[in-house]
């Protein structure tokens, strides 16, 4: 019997979204290859797979490209089956996991806006009230995550009896915030301790890459496939 062709994950592991897909693939035991493309210098190659020019992209053996990490993770859970899926399929456990994901995603979204403000906008064009608002929103989500971690300090996993998507996403997103914003996680002792324990797992260590800020492309450069 021939070995099935592996999927291809596109994007760098310093992206929290790419990283959580890679970790999920490894935890689920799904084989994949990796294309280490940057949204900065490799934007043209990424746009050929995703017109948004964003990562991650998961290229299936059929050639189909899946975009957006939530969609990709949903596909991986379907491949794994309900008994092994990283997000509970129904009920209270699913709602609990989605609450963790919503808070972690809200925090990282605001953190990314802070990062992009520094990377893509000249200092004299940055709007301090806007960045202050983003930081307050990020800190608010981190404080709530910390309180929830403290409430279940003796519980091994966030939801259920084994590692799940809530654990993977929490660690990937908080590590990104620490490295890229950078956000000070010291005030959030329970959250920091939880993330450090998850980060010590082999799958998390395997796909850790220190943050490397993207280099903006020349706005005058032509976009592949765009009208001349």
Shape summary = globular
Which range best describes the helical content: under 10%, 10-25%, 25-40%, 40-55%, 55-70% or over 70%?
40-55%
Radius of gyration: 18 Å
> Can you tell me the CATH class of the largest domain?
Mainly Alpha
Biggest β-sheet description: 4 strands, mixed
**E-strand count:** 4
Mean pLDDT: 92
The residue ranges in which pLDDT falls below 50 over 5 or more consecutive positions are 223-228
What is the terminal separation in angstroms?
48 Å
Task: Provide the β-strand percentage band.
Answer: 5-15%
- CATH fold group of the largest domain: Glutathione S-transferase Yfyf (Class Pi), Chain A, domain 2
CATH architecture annotation of the largest domain: Up-down Bundle
User: So how many helices?
Assistant: 8
Provide the domain count: 2
Order of helices and strands: EHEHEEHHHHHH
For the largest beta sheet, what order do the strands appear in spatially? 2-1-3-4
User: Structural class of the secondary elements?
Assistant: alpha+beta
Description:
By secondary structure, the chain is an alpha+beta fold. It has two domains: about 5-80, Glutaredoxin (3-Layer(aba) Sandwich); about 90-200, Glutathione S-transferase Yfyf (Class Pi), Chain A, domain 2, CATH 1.20.1050. About 50% of the residues lie in helices and about 5% in strands. It has eight helices and four strands, in the order E-H-E-H-E-E-H-H-H-H-H-H. The chain has a four-stranded mixed beta sheet, covered by helices on one side. Strand 3 and strand 4 form a beta hairpin. Helix 4 runs parallel beside helix 6. The longest helix is centred in the middle third of the chain and has 30 residues, at about 90-120. The N and C termini lie far apart (about 50 Å).
């Amino acid at each position: 019997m021939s070995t099935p062709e592996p999927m291809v994950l596109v994007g760098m592991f310093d992206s929290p979204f790419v990283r959580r897909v890679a970790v999920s693939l490894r935890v689920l035991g799904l084989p994949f290859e990796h294309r280490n493309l940057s949204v900065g210098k490799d934007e043209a190659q990424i746009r050929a797979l995703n017109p948004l020019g964003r990562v991650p992209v998961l290229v299936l053996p059929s050639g189909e490209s899946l975009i957006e990490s939530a969609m990709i993770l949903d596909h991986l859970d379907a491949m794994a089956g309900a008994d092994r899926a990283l997000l509970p399929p129904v009920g209270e456990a699913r709602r609990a996991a989605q609450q963790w994901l919503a808070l972690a995603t809200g925090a990282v979204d605001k953190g990314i806006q802070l990062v992009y403000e520094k990377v893509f906008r000249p200092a004299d064009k940055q709007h301090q009230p806007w960045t202050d608002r983003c930081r307050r929103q990020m800190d608010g989500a981190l404080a709530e995550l910390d309180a929830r971690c403290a409430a279940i300090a003796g519980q091994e996993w966030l939801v259920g009896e084994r590692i799940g998507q809530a654990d993977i996403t929490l660690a990937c997103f908080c590590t990104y915030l620490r490295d890229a914003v950078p956000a000070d996680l010291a005030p959030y002792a329970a959250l920091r301790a939880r993330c450090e324990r998850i980060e010590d797992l082999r799958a998390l260590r395997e796909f850790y890459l220190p943050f490397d800020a993207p280099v903006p492309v020349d706005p005058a450069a032509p976009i592949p496939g765009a009208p001349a």
